[in-house]
Design goal:
- Helices cover 31% and strands 23% of the residues.
- The protein is α/β, with parallel strands linked by helices.
- The protein has 2 domains: 6-129 and 322-335, Rossmann fold (3-Layer(aba) Sandwich); 132-316, Dihydrodipicolinate Reductase, domain 2, CATH 3.30.360.10.
- The strands form 3 sheets. A 6-stranded parallel beta sheet has the order 5-2-1-6-7-8, with helices on both faces. Strands 10-9-11-14-13-12 form a 6-stranded mixed beta sheet. A two-stranded antiparallel ribbon has the order 3-4.
- Strand 7, helix 3 (112-115) and strand 8 (125-127) form a beta-alpha-beta unit.
- It is globular, with a radius of gyration of 20 Å.
């Protein structure tokens, strides 16, 4: 910490993403003069290790934000709706990781590499997109700038950490139960996740799509400022602990060779090309774990359609999909002198 930094609050500090937010703030040497760790009443009084010291967790209330300069929220949509306005009224800039504000027309939905220009002025609340959307729009924006995009079809393979620590714990408990021939009872997921895949993330809407799939559709359009872009998504929960994977099909305005697309993707900020399948080089969930960059590979031209590409994308959903993107937004605000320490 530094005496000349910001007073930073992390709401949901004891959760999987909240802990990563604290770690990223420290690892990136973000100028923090004081860290306020906030969580539910159940966690209040416990301690977290951050910035080389023990930080006592405080209960998240409407009075938690006096003197706070920036508040990172990862406490769930209901708590964000309830408490983010109090933080904003207290003078803090809120960077919210939930779905609460993403489709609010007055709230920027930001992936800094794609639409960071929206951070040129001070906004009381800034929304962090859905984890699976973030990693996809990085690749889409790279291609769109060069060849234009006409349509996107994506299938995701999302790890259990996307449902928080409870999802990760359930995978381990069910795996042990399966191997020991004991019955398992799903709590976090709608079906047993051990040794299986579940083609449902979130509840189903009348369209037949799940909430998670609709997030990817509408958030992609908002972030890329393409309100009519045809996007279709199928989101699947898979029995991995961390890292989201995506198979993406992109119809372009003009044809691109695979080599041209690889060069374009490799040059885009935040993306790393890992694409030599013959040598076994392509991104996996384990490859992306702990990395702030997003990995892309299996870039190939469609056999039948002249202006269609297929991509495979892997990213750590707790980092670029959540904590790192939020801290990255804070870094941009700091660099642009939009944040003001009080």
């Amino acid at each position: 910490m530094t005496s000349h930094g910001y007073r930073v609050a992390v709401a949901g500090a004891t959760g999987a993403v909240g802990r990563e937010m604290l770690r990223m703030l420290e690892e990136r040497a973000f100028p923090v003069s004081e860290c306020v760790a906030l969580a539910s009443a159940r966690s209040a009084g416990s301690t977290l290790r951050a910035f080389g010291r023990e930080v006592v967790v405080q209960e998240l209330t409407e009075h938690s934000f006096e003197g706070v300069d920036v508040a990172l929220f990862s406490a769930g949509g209901d708590r964000s709706k309830q408490f983010a306005p109090f933080a904003a009224r207290a003078g803090a800039v809120v960077i919210d990781n939930s779905s609460a504000w993403r489709m609010d027309a007055s709230v920027p939905l930001v992936v800094p590499e794609v639409n960071g220009d929206l951070l040129d002025t001070r906004h009381p609340i800034i929304a962090n997109p859905n984890c699976s959307t973030i990693q996809m729009v990085l690749a889409l924006q790279a291609l769109h700038q060069v060849a234009g995009i006409r349509r996107v079809v994506v299938s995701t393979f999302q790890s259990t950490s996307g449902a928080g620590q409870g999802g990760m714990d359930e995978l381990m408990e069910q795996t042990r139960g399966f191997l020991e021939h004991e019955p398992v009872q799903p709590r976090v997921f709608p079906r047993s996740i051990a040794f299986d895949c579940i083609p449902q993330i979130g509840s189903f809407s009348p369209t037949g799509y799940t909430v998670e799939e609709e997030k990817m559709i509408f958030e992609t359009r908002k972030i890329m400022r393409l309100p009519e872009l045809p996007v279709s998504a199928t989101c699947v929960r898979v029995p991995t602990q961390r890292g989201h994977l995506e198979s993406v099909t992109v119809d372009l305005e003009r044809p691109m060779t695979a080599s041209e697309a690889q060069a374009t993707l490799a040059a885009f900020p935040g993306l790393t090309l890992v694409d030599d399948p013959a040598s076994g080089k392509y991104p996996t969930a384990r490859d992306c774990e702990g990395r702030i960059d997003t990995l892309v590979g299996r870039v190939r031209e469609d056999i039948s359609l002249p202006a269609t590409l297929h991509l495979w994308i892997a990213s750590d959903n707790l980092l670029k999909g959540a904590a790192w993107n939020a801290v990255q937004i804070a870094e941009v605000l700091h660099q642009k002198r939009i944040l003001r320490a009080r």
